[in-house]
Amino acid sequence: MLAGAAVAGQVYDCDFTGYGFTNDRSFVPKRVILDIQPDLSRSTVIDPIIAHVHGKPIRAEVTRQGKRWRASWTIDRVPTTGNSDLGITFVMRVRADSGQASLRLWFRGYDDDVTATGQCKIAKT
Q1: How far apart are CA 33 and CA 46, in angstroms?
Q2: Which of 8, 23, 51, 103 could serve as a FRET partner for 35 with CA atoms 20 to 30 Å apart?
Q3: What is the pTM (predicted TM-score) of this model?
Q4: Greatest pairwise CA separation for the chain in angstroms
């Protein structure tokens, strides 16, 4: 269990398990690191897909919703096994008091969405 309220200046290290079709689940990152900065507009996120496409963390749009954090980000040009690239939008929610997390992602141009649940721990404050 995590102690404290939703405070900026924390790094959440989260592990996720995806649900749905196997090929869709392959886009659910097993680990996401969300770095929430005191200036929320400077917050970043990294996962294996971001590391592969960009090689470093990218900006995440972060808002506080009571005891929860909501972060969203988009990754363009995600390589696939086919002949095309995907754009994927992610929305992650983390409960500051328990570390429970959810992740939802959408593929640009498709109706599919994929969900995952997870658990986060505070890596640093």
Answers
A1: 5
A2: 23
A3: 0.85
A4: 47
